[in-house]
Amino acid sequence: MPTTEVPPAGELAGGSLSFDWCVPLFVLVRRECPEAPNTALQTYLGTPEPFLRYHILSKGVDLEILGELAPGAFHYGMTCLVEFEPHSLWHEVSLTIAAGALKRGVKTEYHVFQFAPQEIRAALKGLGVNVDECERRGIFRIMDTYTSTTPLKGPAEGRAEPMLSGSIPDADRWAKTIRAKLERGFGEDEKEWLHIDDNEAVLLQFSDEEYVAKGWRTTFVPMAKARELLVLHALLTGIASESFYRKREAVADAVIDVRAVEEGRKLEHYIRLRALRGAKFDSSWRRIELFGPNSARLSSGKQVFGFQSDDSEKIFNYLLKSFVNDHFVEKRAAETSGWRSLVEVARGIGAPGTSLYTATGVASLRELSRKGVIERRVLSRQRGRGGRVTRTRIAYEKGFVKEYVSRYIEK
Q1: Which of 11, 37, 163, 311 fits a 20 to 30 Å CA distance from 246?
Q2: Domain presence at residue 305
């Protein structure tokens, strides 16, 4: 991996430290103290070796659905808490996330508490994942905490997680096993995994709330950091005390809610990012829907970007289709694609040509600009209102808009 030298960044034990930045994930720390024994430095770094490699930034992980809620925010070393209602779509959301990750080659382990391993394998195959090949490559495995609690026999197929899988949940034994492993250290093959739970609340059937909450804070969260995991711990809501959920939330890097609401004699499903440490995010509820068997998605641009009016959504959808047609169908350059005058946009959404110059039209355009999903240009040399023509298009250069375009094309 190429490195770039930067000037010395600090001093310790009488010598300077210089940093070699290994873009974008690591930093190498080199000692430059030839005249000193460097005792303090060695103690600080924990090694007598001249180089020590450690993380300064965490590698991002592209996740289905969650990546649309907070593009670029999810990364290894991150502990997320999912609180889901009984009739919500968390099961389908979790499988959608797992399938998307495996298709991109992300190492993924799925922890079953309430579903049989065979069900998860079958569901992922139905979502187009070559499960056998992923297991052969060592990028997929199931942590089975379900079979041991039932009269069922363990699955004959598949790859199991080696440390905790296949035994009755015992928080004390698990904690001792993990702590012993933490002392020995984890190999590289155990690092950088996506870990997904179906329902960790099942542990409360075997241990009390206080013990589970304490073990999570003192053992499982540190393990996630040591293994550099991206963890989605899922808890069914309404079965434990408010104190239990609050203790879990306080330690998590992100809190995600998945719920089902009865609207108009049918259940509507929603997801939101309630908390996210260290990053700006939109905490609005977003509608999710079943896209196919065991497959979920955010249902529309209105839910993804939280548009406040139907007019705003219509304008965005028209500009989205215009860009896709210009760039992906007619093969124009991205920087010249999708530009439309306000009159063209108005007519494109079935409104009078001057409607975007009214107070309502201006408010819709301002909302889209404020959310950062469109960009505008004023061309003074072309004839238009007041001698100028205003053209607008989707803000394709922004990562979260580009990601939405990619998902739109896939659908």
Answers
A1: 163
A2: no
**pTM, entire model:** 0.64
Same domain, 132 and 14: no
Residue 165, token pair as written in the block: 């899988």
Residue 60 lies in a domain: no
Contact 298, 288 (CB under 8 A): yes
User: How far, in Å, are 72, 159, 277 from residue 251 at the CA level?
Assistant: 21, 31, 10
Q: Which residue has the higher pLDDT, 275 or 291?
A: 275
Q: Give yes or no for a contact between 337 and 326, defined as CB atoms under 8 angstroms apart.
A: yes
% pLDDT > 70, the chain: 79
Longest dimension (CA), the chain: 80
Residue 282 included in any domain: yes
* Cβ–Cβ < 8 Å for 235, 248: yes
Looking at residue 399, which CATH number applies to its domain?
A: 1.10.10
Q: In terms of residue numbers, what domain contains 84?
A: 66-299
Q: Which residues have a Cβ under 8 Å from the Cβ of 158 and sit 6 or more positions away?
A: 117, 121, 131, 135, 141, 142
What DSSP designation does 386 have? G
229 and 179 within one domain:
yes
Torsion sign across C-alpha atoms 87, 88, 92, 98: negative
- How many domains are there within the chain? 3
Return all residues near 300 (Cβ < 8 A) that are at least 6 apart: 287, 313
Task: Encode pLDDT of 129-165 as tens digits.
Answer: 999 999 999 999 999 999 888 887 777 676 667 667 7
Q: Which residue, of 260, 278, 299, is where some domain finishes? A: 299
Alpha helix stretches (DSSP H) within 272-411:
301-305, 310-324, 342-348, 359-370, 399-410
Nearest CA-CA partner of 342 in 373, 317, 295, 377: 377
Q: Is 78 helix (H, G, I), strand (E, B) or coil?
A: strand
Cα(211)–Cα(171) distance, rounded to whole angstroms? 8
DSSP string, 308-319: SSHHHHHHHHHH
Residues 145 and 96 in one domain: yes
Q: Is residue 216 within 8 Å of residue 248, measured between CB atoms?
A: yes
pLDDT, tens digit (0-9, with 9 covering 90-100), for 324-333: 999 999 999 9
